[in-house]
Amino acid sequence: MMDCKKALSETGGDIIKAIEFLRTKGLASAEKKASRTTAEGRIGSYIHDSRIGILIEVNCETDFVSRGEIFKELVDDLAMQVAACPQVQVVATEDVAEAVVSKDWIKQTIATIGENMKVKRFKSSRLAAEGRIGSYIHDSRIGVLIEVNCETDFVGRGEIFKELVDDLAMQVVACPQVQFVSTEDVPKSIVEKEKELEMQREDLQSKPENIREKIVDGRISKRLGELALLEQPFIKDDKLLVKDLVKQTVASLGENIKVRRFVRFTLGEDTD
């Protein structure tokens, strides 16, 4: 109320100018909050027609704000905004900041809520073949975007295939150690590093070289399996590996299916 009175006094009672004065004041206040730490927030996603997917992390200062409807709406709208701007590749630069997130829009939300906010990162994915892009968000703190391909649009839009994609997204959320789709996707540099470390382990030094090689190969195979999505026990049936779930779905639908890629965000994780 005092701010409104001051605004009217400053603008000589002109209501329109008073509103502009308040908006300017609010944005200025938002600028001051820009240096405050943003450790909370939420992970959000937007999927358009199962062919375009966005995963986004937006940070704020407190858990209380992150769970409020205003902040949730902001995150949802920002994800949709990125989906509508296929040329956007980064959060903000001089060239694309307005197209990405509309800086003033965020500042106005900061002024409304009274906390600093920051778009930390986003990832966009566009379907490379037939199939669908899906997402799973757990408690707004862990999010996954996944692309799974099939042969025809008919299968891609069916309920069986949709359920598979949803289950695979949930699987990635449940397996924080998973970094790759299959063991074949693990870079050679990682394999060589694992082998180097294993060969130096004390429990192998007394073994003959040929035995040591076999033991190391077995350990590396196990380690690579831990990093690969397809090698994980299925969360809904731990007697079934994810790769076998995919094979069963292939047999059921009569089409080849390939898990193409995924990305996972965990709120507040170090991205450097």
Would you summarize the structure shown here?
By secondary structure, the protein is α+β, with helices and mostly antiparallel strands. 46% of the residues lie in helices and 22% in strands. It starts with a helix and ends in a 6-residue tail after the last strand.
Structural summary, described in words:
- By secondary structure, this protein is an alpha+beta fold.
- The chain folds into four domains: 2-33, no CATH class; 36-126, Tetrahydropterin Synthase, Chain A; 129-186 and 228-272, Tetrahydropterin Synthase, Chain A (2-Layer Sandwich), CATH 3.30.479.20; 187-227, Orthogonal Bundle (GTP Cyclohydrolase I, Chain A, domain 1).
- It is built from eleven helices and eight strands.
- The chain has helices at residues 2-10, 15-33, 63-66, 69-83, 97-100, 103-113, 153-156, 159-174, 188-199, 209-227, 242-253; strands spanning 40-48, 52-60, 118-126, 131-138, 142-149, 233-234, 237-241, 258-266.
- The chain has a three-stranded antiparallel β-sheet. Strands 4-5-8 form a three-stranded antiparallel β-sheet.
- 29% of the residues are buried.
- Associates with the EF-Tu.GDP complex and induces the exchange of GDP to GTP. It remains bound to the aminoacyl-tRNA.EF-Tu.GTP complex up to the GTP hydrolysis stage on the ribosome.
- GO terms for molecular function: translation elongation factor activity.
- This is Elongation factor Ts, mitochondrial.
Q: Largest beta sheet, briefly?
A: 3 strands, antiparallel
Q: Return the CATH topology of the largest domain.
A: Tetrahydropterin Synthase, Chain A
The CATH fourth-level homologous superfamily of the largest domain: Elongation factor Ts, dimerisation domain
Kindly estimate the percentage of residues that lie in beta strands according to DSSP. Answer: 15-25%
**Poorly predicted spans:** 27-35, 93-101
